[in-house]
């Protein structure tokens, strides 16, 4: 099968990019011809080294450039002649849809960020992949027919992007609590800072490490500096090796207010962390409905503090939850994601025909 993935860019530190790159590389390993059309980025080298062709496809939406982007995308489809076009973001879906109609090529879309207003445009696909059951429910509420939606839960284990990474744990003080994510309100870091401050007196040896960057980093650092436990909080900034920090952690916390199916939970579970996540969107699905990680209500700093206290003051509970993180871990392998996605392609091709 000839598969063309379309996405805005191939830069690191974007979950939808990582998911698309992981999938494309695995599809080549399964014997398919695969290309990625985008405006490029630092993951292009990884794609090419895994046999994925990289093609420039403008995604510029500026008033003077959008027509050029439409025509450029159509030109890519005409030249490469894919059997399946797989769009990973709203701009890609909109640019590809007219040419897919004209050329009678099936279009598959993946909804990575359903909280965005433009996510409804992902319904342009013949088939719509939701990265969690929660995303599928949201898209149905927005008017996309359930008969066109397929759920393919995210997973990263065994992906080409993970090969060659360092397996040396980051040297951290213990008990070590790690957060990895973008520093913007949706990820809920202020809740974790307040919860950590409340839990700290129960075990002053605990340390919090914040890995990631974003537009609110300065504000969050100011908040942390004003806390009595400020000396126990480290902002490590964006890192190319976040998995090392997970390997060095005792506890991984994801306090998101909205998160369709965060790849970072797959990585944290693979690293063997005890996990605390919020009971929102796709997080419960990635934590086996609370069997592989502790679930707390989003925005509930008291509940989050109680979970931190329990894990940092009771070694038996910490060991128990680290072991539970391994429950049904194989379900988060990229092999399963690729096979389920190929099944969606076959349905899309049948429907388009």
- CATH class label of the largest domain: Alpha Beta
- The helix tally amounts to 13
Q: In the residues, how many domains can be counted?
A: 2
Reported by name, the CATH topology of the largest domain is Rossmann fold
Output the strand order for the largest sheet: 3-2-1-4-5-6-7
The count of strands amounts to 13
Order of helices and strands: EHEHEHEHEEHEEHEHEHEHEHEHHH
Based on secondary structure, the structural category is alpha/beta
Shape call:
elongated
CATH architecture call of the largest domain: 3-Layer(aba) Sandwich
Major sheet, described briefly? 7 strands, parallel
In which range does the helix fraction lie? 25-40%
The CATH homologous superfamily of the largest domain is termed Glycogen Phosphorylase B
Task: Supply database-style keywords.
353 residues, alpha/beta, 13 helices, Rossmann fold, six-stranded parallel beta sheet, 13 strands, seven-stranded parallel beta sheet
Structure description:
With 353 residues, the protein is α/β, with parallel strands linked by helices. The protein has two domains: 2-155 and 333-352, Glycogen Phosphorylase B (Rossmann fold, 3-Layer(aba) Sandwich); 176-332, 3-Layer(aba) Sandwich (Rossmann fold). Helix content is 40%, strand content 16%. The chain has helices spanning 15-29, 44-49, 66-80, 90-103, 133-141, 189-199, 217-225, 242-248, 263-271, 283-286, 301-313, 315-324, 334-352, and strands at 2-6, 33-38, 53-56, 84-87, 107-111, 127-130, 149-151, 176-180, 207-211, 233-237, 251-254, 274-278, 294-296. The strands form two sheets. The chain has a seven-stranded parallel β-sheet, with helices on both faces. β11 (251-254), α9 (263-271) and β12 (274-278) form a beta-alpha-beta unit. The longest helix has 19 residues, at 334-352. The radius of gyration is 21 Å and the shape is elongated. The model has no long low-confidence stretch (mean pLDDT 95). Residues 14-155 form the Glycosyltransferase subfamily 4-like N-terminal domain. This is Glycosyltransferase. Pfam families: Glyco_trans_1_4 (PF13692), Glyco_transf_4 (PF13439).
